[in-house]
Amino acid sequence: MRARLACLFFVVACWPALAQSPPSEPDTWSSDPRTGCKVRDADNGAAIVSWSGPCVGGLAQGKGTLQVSKDGKAVRTYVGDMLGGKRNGRAVMTFPSGTRYDGEFKNDRRHGYGVQAWPDGNRYAGNWRDGLPNGQGTMTIASSGKSYTGNWVNGCLRQDGTVASAFVPYEDCK
């Protein structure tokens, strides 16, 4: 019961930052008004973007900084690699809330090894696939000091009678 409450608290408390991953489909694009360089837009065309890196064929490419704002407010900052206008490779992504992801991306989603940490001390460190914890990883809930370590599958850990969720509703993991 305690594990369920901790996981439920984690999902509810962190949902705004989590809702940004994985990006919505189909692909929509935003252009940097200064350079015309396009980037994949997870905000369905509602974002204003600024890209400081190279632009190849009209798309963000290589190392640079992507700043995204919506309704005049910062949404996120991405410092790292882009490929064909999408987040791809090693990067650090930060949010105004203080949430920070430091790790790998593939095709605009968290993919590979990465660490996501929240200002309240919660953190997930481990493998990701298609924007969700997949593979070996550890979710630590700061308020309880409890850690959930094991093989995550699509944001769910089921192990030794314990069910934990990260980045998906707890009900999806039952």
Short characterization:
The protein is mostly beta strands and 174 residues long. Helix content is 10%, strand content 52%.
Radius of gyration: 17 Å
> How many separate helices?
1
Show unreliable segments.
1-24
The main sheet comes to:
9 strands, antiparallel
Average of the residue pLDDT scores: 87
User: What form results from the Cα inertia axes?
Assistant: elongated
Query: Which structural class is indicated by helix and strand composition?
Result: mainly beta
Alpha-carbon distance between the termini? Answer: 13 Å
Query: How many domain regions?
Result: 2
How many strands appear in the DSSP assignment? 15
What is the percent of helical residues? under 10%
Beta fraction: over 45%
Strand order of the largest sheet: 3-6-7-8-9-10-11-12-13
Query: How do the helices and strands follow one another from N- to C-terminus?
Result: HEEEEEEEEEEEEEEE
Describe this structure in words.
The chain is built from one helix and 15 strands. The N terminus is likely disordered. The strands form four sheets. It has a nine-stranded antiparallel beta sheet. The chain has a two-stranded antiparallel sheet with strand order 1-2. The two termini are 13 Å apart. Helix content is 10%, strand content 52%. The protein is mainly β and 174 residues long.
